[in-house]
Amino acid sequence: MRLSNKIALPIAAIVGLLIAVAWMAGLFADKTPAGLKEQQQAFKGSIQNVSIELLNVTERAPGSIVAKENTLVASRLLAQLKTLTVRAGDKVEQGQILARLDDADLKAQVSQVKAEQDANTAQLQQAKKQLERSQALLEQGLVAINQVDEWRAKVDELNARQNALSQQLTAAEIALGFSQIQAPISGTVVERLVEPGSIVAPGTALLSLYNPAQLQVQAAVREQQAAHMQVGDKLKVYVPATSLTQYATISEIVPVADSSARTFLVKLDMGLMPSVVPGMYAQIEYQLEQRPALLIPSHLVKQYGQLDMVQVVDNGVLSRRYIRLGDAFGDKVEVISGLSKEDKLAIY
């Protein structure tokens, strides 16, 4: 009897444990069909029909602001830079003197040529007088003709030298003018590349300038959309850094596509925009072809965590339907999947 009690107690404990596990697993609960666990209910309120609409869809392409008119201001001489009067950000006018080079040697060269020109002019005047006297004496038979020819040759030689000196003087004055470096365009200084005291050679860049009134947007546009664009079309340009929007005109479509990105480079001319400078990020906006889309009012969509849900009325019965959404268009949102145009939505 004592042995049977020892066996019965463990068996009873095991059976009790198995019953508890089965109860926690829900074996004794009523079965619920898969899917939504909420009980469907009849709906007697207002409904919203789902319909297909044609959308005028716009697309944005990233781009950047560049200066259509920019230049490097360079030296044309080998000389020492004496002064540089502007710095980055300064506004300059076309023809304004920006820098001066050491011009002592150039001024000396101009003075030397002028002195030689004065001396040659005096010799030329004297030679012309001698030629006139020789011609008069020749008519009287007092000198030989070869003496007249010698003075005529001398006059011709001095005339030729006078022309050569005039050209040398012009070249020297032009070189002297190059010592004062002027702004080739009106604009803004981007960068100061050298400092006074430096020895600059011909072609050495001193400054970089750009014209803020001649800006351009360059953007890569998908080849399917670039095929519908033409030079002269106006597109909307948005600059996020300044929150400014402006229309720009297509001035060029590069006729070679980027084979890796399948895009075309489109250039648009734009007017002056306050606080917009080259290098800024910009977006161009253009309209795509109309396409059909299933749209529903945004307020009919409820969120459950990361899921979007609407209440669908089917044969007078209200049920929950999970959907996948696309872009919003005003007070409506596009439904990508989960609904069809025959469905009816409950308004609540």
What would the keywords be for this entry?
coiled coil; MdtA-like_BSH; 6-stranded antiparallel β-barrel; Beta-barrel_RND_2; efflux transmembrane transporter activity; Efflux RND transporter periplasmic adaptor subunit; alpha+beta; 7-stranded antiparallel β-sheet; 348 residues
Question: Brief description of this entry?
Answer:
The protein has 348 residues and is α+β, with helices and mostly antiparallel strands. The protein has four domains: 1-31; 41-56 and 291-346, conserved putative lor/sdh protein from methanococcus maripaludis s2 fold, CATH 2.40.420.20; 60-69 and 209-287, Efflux pump adaptor protein, beta barrel domain (Elongation Factor Tu (Ef-tu), domain 3), CATH 2.40.30.170; 103-178.
Cα radius of gyration in angstroms: 46 Å
Sheet having the most strands: 7 strands, antiparallel
How many H/I helical runs?
A: 4
Q: Assign the CATH topology of the largest domain.
A: Elongation Factor Tu (Ef-tu), domain 3
Determine the N-to-C terminus distance: 72 Å
* Average of per-residue pLDDT values: 85
Query: Please, what is the CATH homologous superfamily of the largest domain?
Result: Efflux pump adaptor protein, beta barrel domain
Integer tally of domains: 4
- Helix-strand pattern: HEEEEEEEEHHEEEEEHEEEEEEEEEE
Shape: elongated
Number of strands: 23
CATH class of the largest domain: Mainly Beta
General description of the model:
With 348 residues, this protein is of the alpha+beta class. The chain folds into four domains: 1-31; 41-56 and 291-346, conserved putative lor/sdh protein from methanococcus maripaludis s2 fold, CATH 2.40.420; 60-69 and 209-287, Elongation Factor Tu (Ef-tu), domain 3 (Beta Barrel); 103-178. Helix content is 28%, strand content 39%. It is built from four helices and 23 strands. It has helices at residues 2-24, 104-139, 145-177, 223-226; strands at 41-42, 47-49, 51-55, 58-67, 70-74, 79-84, 91-92, 97-101, 180-182, 187-192, 199-200, 205-210, 215-222, 234-239, 244-253, 263-270, 281-287, 291-297, 302-304, 307-314, 317-329, 332-337, 344-346. The strands form five sheets. Strands 1, 3, 18, 19, 20, 21 and 22 form a seven-stranded antiparallel beta sheet that branches. A six-stranded antiparallel barrel has the order 4-13-16-15-14-17. A four-stranded antiparallel beta sheet has the order 5-12-10-7, with no helix packed on it. A hairpin with a 4-residue loop joins strand 14 (234-239) and strand 15. Helix 2 packs antiparallel against helix 3. The longest helix has 36 residues, at 104-139. The radius of gyration is 46 Å and the shape is elongated. The two termini are 72 Å apart. Residues 32-38 have low confidence and may be disordered.
